[in-house]
Design goal:
87 residues, elongated, Tetracycline Repressor, domain 2, mainly alpha, 6 helices, single chain
Length: 87
Protein backbone atom coordinates (compact mmCIF):
# COMPACT_ATOMS: atom_id res chain seq x y z
CA UNK A 1 0.00 0.00 0.00
CA UNK A 2 2.79 2.42 0.88
CA UNK A 3 4.62 1.60 -2.34
CA UNK A 4 1.56 2.19 -4.50
CA UNK A 5 -0.06 5.08 -2.63
CA UNK A 6 2.60 6.69 -0.48
CA UNK A 7 3.14 6.74 3.26
CA UNK A 8 0.80 9.54 4.30
CA UNK A 9 -2.44 8.54 2.49
CA UNK A 10 -2.50 5.07 4.08
CA UNK A 11 -3.98 5.17 7.56
CA UNK A 12 -3.48 2.84 10.50
CA UNK A 13 -7.09 1.62 10.37
CA UNK A 14 -6.62 0.46 6.79
CA UNK A 15 -3.34 -1.25 7.59
CA UNK A 16 -4.94 -3.10 10.51
CA UNK A 17 -7.87 -4.16 8.32
CA UNK A 18 -5.64 -5.35 5.46
CA UNK A 19 -3.28 -7.18 7.83
CA UNK A 20 -6.25 -8.75 9.64
CA UNK A 21 -4.73 -8.11 13.06
CA UNK A 22 -6.07 -6.47 16.17
CA UNK A 23 -5.17 -2.91 17.03
CA UNK A 24 -3.31 -4.19 20.10
CA UNK A 25 -1.21 -6.56 18.00
CA UNK A 26 -0.39 -3.81 15.53
CA UNK A 27 0.72 -1.38 18.23
CA UNK A 28 2.72 -4.09 20.00
CA UNK A 29 4.87 -4.40 16.86
CA UNK A 30 4.77 -0.73 15.84
CA UNK A 31 4.31 1.57 18.85
CA UNK A 32 4.12 4.60 16.57
CA UNK A 33 3.97 5.64 12.94
CA UNK A 34 7.72 6.27 12.87
CA UNK A 35 8.51 2.61 13.66
CA UNK A 36 6.12 1.42 10.96
CA UNK A 37 7.58 3.72 8.32
CA UNK A 38 11.15 2.76 9.28
CA UNK A 39 10.26 -0.93 8.95
CA UNK A 40 8.70 -0.22 5.55
CA UNK A 41 11.82 1.60 4.36
CA UNK A 42 14.28 -0.94 5.75
CA UNK A 43 12.80 -3.98 4.01
CA UNK A 44 13.20 -2.78 0.40
CA UNK A 45 16.65 -1.43 1.26
CA UNK A 46 17.67 -4.84 2.61
CA UNK A 47 16.27 -6.56 -0.48
CA UNK A 48 18.12 -4.18 -2.82
CA UNK A 49 21.31 -4.53 -0.80
CA UNK A 50 21.07 -8.33 -1.07
CA UNK A 51 20.62 -8.09 -4.85
CA UNK A 52 23.64 -5.81 -5.19
CA UNK A 53 25.78 -7.96 -2.87
CA UNK A 54 24.86 -11.07 -4.90
CA UNK A 55 25.64 -9.30 -8.18
CA UNK A 56 29.00 -8.08 -6.87
CA UNK A 57 29.91 -11.51 -5.51
CA UNK A 58 29.12 -13.09 -8.89
CA UNK A 59 31.29 -10.60 -10.80
CA UNK A 60 34.37 -12.38 -12.15
CA UNK A 61 36.67 -9.36 -12.00
CA UNK A 62 36.97 -6.04 -10.17
CA UNK A 63 35.84 -4.28 -13.38
CA UNK A 64 32.77 -6.52 -13.73
CA UNK A 65 31.60 -6.09 -10.10
CA UNK A 66 30.36 -2.49 -10.34
CA UNK A 67 28.80 -3.24 -13.72
CA UNK A 68 26.96 -6.19 -12.21
CA UNK A 69 25.74 -4.00 -9.33
CA UNK A 70 24.55 -1.35 -11.81
CA UNK A 71 22.69 -3.97 -13.86
CA UNK A 72 21.04 -5.25 -10.69
CA UNK A 73 19.86 -1.76 -9.72
CA UNK A 74 18.65 -1.05 -13.27
CA UNK A 75 16.63 -4.26 -13.28
CA UNK A 76 15.08 -3.44 -9.90
CA UNK A 77 13.95 0.05 -10.96
CA UNK A 78 12.30 -1.39 -14.06
CA UNK A 79 10.11 -3.63 -11.91
CA UNK A 80 6.32 -3.23 -12.23
CA UNK A 81 4.95 -0.41 -10.11
CA UNK A 82 8.25 1.39 -9.53
CA UNK A 83 7.42 4.44 -11.66
CA UNK A 84 3.82 4.53 -10.41
CA UNK A 85 5.06 4.79 -6.84
CA UNK A 86 7.00 7.96 -7.68
CA UNK A 87 3.97 9.84 -9.00
Amino acid sequence: MFYAEGVHPVGVDRIIAEAKVTRATFYRHFPGNEELILAYLRKPHEMERDLVDTAIAAGPSPVERPLAAARSIAQAIRSPGFVDALS
